[in-house]
Structure formats: structure tokens, C-alpha cells
Amino acid sequence: MLIEVRGLHKVYVLGKVKVHALRGVDLSIDRGEYVSIMGPSGSGKSTLMHIIGCLDRPTEGQYLLDGIPVHTLTEPELADIRKKKIGFVFQSFNLLPRITALENVELPMVYAGVKYKERQKRAMELLEQVGLGDRALHRPTELSGGEAQRVAIARALANDPEVILADEPTGNLDSATGEEILDLFDRLHDGGKTVVLVTHDRHVAGRTERIIYLKDGKIVSREEFEE
Ligand SMILES: Nc1ncnc2c1ncn2[C@@H]1O[C@H](COP(=O)(O)OP(=O)(O)OP(=O)(O)O)[C@@H](O)[C@H]1O
Ligand SMILES: [Mg+2]
Fold it and tell me: What's the CATH code of the domain at 176?
């Protein structure tokens, strides 16, 4: 099992206010699976993705990623695992505005210590793979939303991660552009990558192999979800 989550809780504490965002989540995802997570706003989807993506740690519970007990790791160890195993795609693209598309894709490789020539070559190949070979020198403001999201996907692939996690990757795109982005995720899945995407959209979720329903910080059945 690539992702194994047991009894996961997340409590956010802000002064006197506590938000119990996850309330005992159990979840297993196999290598190569194509999974979506659906749930209403505030149900804990992003919180769960952040923990799976090693951006945050649970308050309670276990998380094994590729057999590694992530819940026991220190912050630097967590960052190290994240760099090697996770590619993140966000709703708002999160590209650095002042550098080119090519440099954005190179960035994770800079942090991973890949040499200049090699990372330039790979970044260019990745941009070509997402159909943007001719936009390499554009800055994010000089790209359309769909193009920016393609750059973000190329960046997520830079270090050849085990898992691609995407939080509402089509949320800021019109439906035709969103379809093109989903086609790219389909291709990544066909190529053997594990892909997990969060969405509000039934149609988007319907393209994946399995839908996980989240409600009030818990995983529920489809029937419970719809009642
Ligand atoms: N950093 C934080 N600090 C405090 N509370 C937070 C934090 N992040 C999320 N929350 C709270 O945790 C709950 C779950 O939030 P989360 O962002 O996981 O929901 P979501 O399912 O992704 O919602 P949406 O569909 O609107 O993106 C919410 O009540 C939210 O207010
Ligand atoms: Mg969210």
C-alpha cells in the first residue's frame, strides 16, 4: 500500500477556538490508483490532502507513506520526503510570478540539487509533455489559466514523485480548459502514477477509479454522503 492512514485527527487551535477538521480518518490508496476526494466546503478535504502531501502533520493517528511512518518525522525529514515523493497541484496554480515557466518547473530540481544543464533539459521535456514547449520563456502573467495549470503540473512532475496530489485543480478554469487538464491527469494515471484529486464536481470525480466521500471530517459511504 502506498498511502495508509489510520485514525487520523486534525485539530486546529487558534487562540481559544478549536476546529476539529478531521475526526478519525482511515484510508488506503494503492500505488497506481486514480482516486478523487469529494466533500462539501469545510469537510476537511484540503486538511487531509495537506497531511497526505506531508505539508502538515496530524494531531493524532498514523500515516504510512510507502511504509515510512510520516507521523513520527521531524519537520526537516518531512520536507525531505515531500520533495522526493509528492507533487502538488493547487487550484490557484501557485507559480512564482517573477520567473519564467521553465524556471518554475526547474525550481523543485534546484532544491533537490539537480545540476543546471540536467534540470534545464528535464524542465523543457516536461513542458513539452504538457504541450507548452513554446511557452517556456513566458512568465505566469503571460499565460492563460489553463497554461499556468499545465506549468504547475510540469513542476509537480519535476522530481518524478510517487504521488500527484491535486486540490481542486480545475476550480479556477472554464469547463473546456478543465477537461484538458483532466486529460493530463488521465495520462499521468495511464503512465502509472498515483493520482489523488480533490473536487466539488461530480463529473470530475466520475473520471477517477474511486471516489472517497468526506463529510464533517469523516469518510462516509456514498449513501450517507447523499442523504
Ligand atoms: N490553518 C487552519 N487553521 C485553522 N482552521 C483551519 C485551518 N485550515 C482549515 N481550517 C478549518 O478546518 C476545517 C476544514 O477545512 P478544509 O480547508 O480542510 O476544508 P475543505 O473541505 O478543503 O473546504 P473547501 O471545499 O472550502 O476548500 C474548516 O472548518 C476550516 O475553517
Ligand atoms: Mg479545500
Answer: 3.40.50.300
| Residue 18 domain flag | no
Total domain count, the chain: 1
Task: Establish if 89 belongs to a structural domain.
Answer: yes
Q: What is the pLDDT of residue 227?
A: 81
pLDDT digits (tens, 9 = 90+) for 16-60: 999 999 999 999 999 999 999 999 999 999 999 999 999 999 999
Span 77-105, average pLDDT: 95
C-alpha to C-alpha distance for 29 and 208, rounded to whole angstroms = 13
**Ligand 2 centroid from CA 227, angstroms:** 22
CB of 194 closer than 6 A to ligand 1?
no
The ligand whose atoms approach the alpha carbon of 25 most closely is: 1
- Which range of residues forms the domain containing residue 89? 32-57+75-226
Atom of ligand 1 nearest to the CA of 198: 22
Is the minimum distance from the CB of 217 to ligand 1 under 6 angstroms?
A: no
* 78 — pLDDT class (breaks 50, 70, 90): very high
Closest CA to 149 of 157, 212, 32: 157
Find the mean pLDDT for residues 199-222: 95
Alpha-carbon separation of residue 191 from 71, 105, 137, 153, 182 (angstroms): 29, 20, 27, 14, 14
CA 200 to CA 46: how far, in whole Å? Answer: 12
